[in-house]
Amino acid sequence: MPKRVGNNPRATVLKIDKDVRISPQLRVQYIQDSARTLLRSRIRILKIRTILTPHGEHFEFTVNRRMNAQTTNDWQFRLGDDGKRVAFNQARIDAGFADWNKLFEVTKRGRVRKGRPKQPDA
């Protein structure tokens, strides 16, 4: 089930992982191209969030259509999400995980953790 946005049961958040830093001009062009691609299927972007990461950027597009997990993952791939992340998400979907669409996790101490947890030093 896609993440519910505020109190709008008809919205979905598409999360795109780009492991590269791009120029502001290319970022604007990417967002415009993504909006046009979605609009061809009558999907509008309601909100855009860009998050800088140590490896690049995450884009979160809140769209006006509620989508199931498979459709959300398919759209994320079509919009250029990292291929390994798409495959990992697909495995989570196939296994029936409700919280399958993660870019990162926040630990109990408020730290951001991406991927596997760090092993304690011996």
Q: How does this model look, in words?
A:
The protein has 122 residues and is α+β, with helices and mostly antiparallel strands. The protein has a single domain, classed as Alpha-Beta Plaits (2-Layer Sandwich), CATH 3.30.70. It is 31% helix and 21% strand. It has three helices and five strands; from the N terminus they run βαββααββ. The strands form two sheets. Strands 1-3-2 form a three-stranded antiparallel sheet. Strands 4-5 form a two-stranded antiparallel ribbon. Helix 2 runs antiparallel to helix 3. The longest helix is centred in the N-terminal third of the chain and has 16 residues. The N terminus and C terminus are likely disordered.
Give structural attributes.
122 residues, alpha+beta, Alpha-Beta Plaits, two-stranded antiparallel ribbon, globular, disordered C terminus
